[in-house]
Amino acid sequence: MAPSVRFTATAEVLPTAKEKETLAKGQAIALLGCHSSTSTGSGADLAAVGELGRLAVELLRRGAAPRAYEAAARKLNVDVDTIQHGVEGLTYLLTESSKVMISETDFQDSIHVLGFSDELNKLLLQLYLDNRKEIRNVLGELAPRLPSYHNLEWRLDVQLASRSLRQQIKPAVTVKLHLNENGDETAHVLQTDPSTLLHLIQELEQALGEMKTNHCRRIVRNMK
Question: Which CDD domains does this chain map to (predicted)?
Answer without folding.
Answer: Commd2
